[in-house]
Amino acid sequence: MIIDPGANTDHLFELSDPYDVTMIVLTHCHIDHAGGVKHLRQLFKEHGKKEPSVLYHSQEIIIGEYIETIALQYGLSPTRYQNAPSPDEILDNKDVIELGDSRFKCLFTPGHSPGHVALYYENDDFLLEGKHADDKQCNHLLIAGDTLFYGSIGRTDLPMGNHEQLLESIRTQLLVLPEDTVVCSGHGPNTTIRHEKLTNPFLEVPD
Description:
By secondary structure, this protein is of the alpha/beta class. The protein has two domains: 1-94, Ribonuclease Z/Hydroxyacylglutathione hydrolase-like (Metallo-beta-lactamase, Chain A); 95-207, 4-Layer Sandwich (Metallo-beta-lactamase, Chain A), CATH 3.60.15.10. It is built from seven helices and 14 strands. The strands form four sheets. It has a six-stranded mixed beta sheet with strand order 5-6-7-10-13-14. Strands 1-2-3-4 form a four-stranded parallel beta sheet, with no helix packed on it. A two-stranded antiparallel sheet has the order 8-9. β11 (148-149) and β12 form a beta hairpin. α1 (9-16) crosses α3 (37-46). The longest helix has 12 residues, at 163-174. The radius of gyration is 17 Å and the shape is globular. The protein starts with a strand and ends in an 8-residue tail after the last helix. The model has no long low-confidence stretch (mean pLDDT 92).
């Protein structure tokens, strides 16, 4: 499973080569999370591999249809940043995404975008590696997309963003998870639910 291939698709394909990638899951369809899906699938096809299916929420379809327009506005290549393909499977009513013996709970977390989802893996056998991972074993893992960050939250000034809805999503869907859950955000370093409860200024409850 590949999550949110916004760019660097050649590198992503190289990393995925030893594995049987069956799906691409999008937390949402902003350009930096979904702009590389078509190019990545094309790489699979060119190398004689089956194209992974694409999964995301139906309320993100309209967002994904404007990726090429956004790319041109920012001077980016419309051949690398392309509109998101139609989903092979929508996540509107999907509670769990199964990957072999692993099960990821699909959490509906709108606010940053209208159909944003987060993925929660509750087992303790997940090894997190990479730039922001500290190469450590996770007790629980949350793929948060652009909802919750280290010391911050997702922006809501983009089209169809909703600040109050985002805060409600974080409070009802994310902060109720075990406090030792490692939060892997769409940008920046990882954090934990406990750390954000204690220190995130955007989540403080007013007196």
